[in-house]
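Incident review: delayed structure delivery

Summary: a single-chain prediction request sat in the queue longer than the usual turnaround. Root cause was a stuck worker, restarted by the on-call engineer. No data loss occurred. The affected request and its eventual output are reproduced below so the record is complete for anyone auditing the incident later.

Affected input:
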Amino acid sequence: MKIYTHTHYNINLPDGWTVENEADYTSFYLPDGIGDLIISSFEREQEVTDDDLEEFAADHIDSDVDSEEVEYGEFTGFSFCYDIDEEYLCEWYLKSGNLMLFITYSCALEDEDNSEEDIVESMLDSLHTQRH
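Output delivered after worker restart:
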C-alpha cells in the first residue's frame, strides 16, 4: 500500500491502483477493476459547515435519494448511493476545517454486486488533510 499526497489531502492507495490527476479532480482506479473513484477538493477561506455541504448537494437532497451520515479519517459529512442510466453511483460530501471534498465512485450497474465498495471504504477511511 502506498500513500497518495494531494495539495489538500492524503489517501492510502491499495497495491495496483492507478492515479490520474486532472485540472479539477483526481481519479483513482484499478486498471483491471470495474469502477473509478474521483475526488475533487475545494479550500475555502472559512470553515466548511453542514449547510455548505447541503447546499453543494442540493440536487440530491431534494430528490428521493436517501443520505447517510459518514465519517472518514478527519472528515465528516454524508453520502448517497443510487442507480442511474445503467450505472451504480455513490457520492460523498465531506468536510474538515476549511476543506471540502466531493467524491464519487461509479461502476456499471451490472457490476454493482461486485463493486470495489469495501476497498473504496478502506481508502476513504485513510483520508487526512494536508494542513497549510
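Verification: Helices lie at 50-56, 58-61, 117-125.
Action items: add queue-age alerting; document worker restart procedure.
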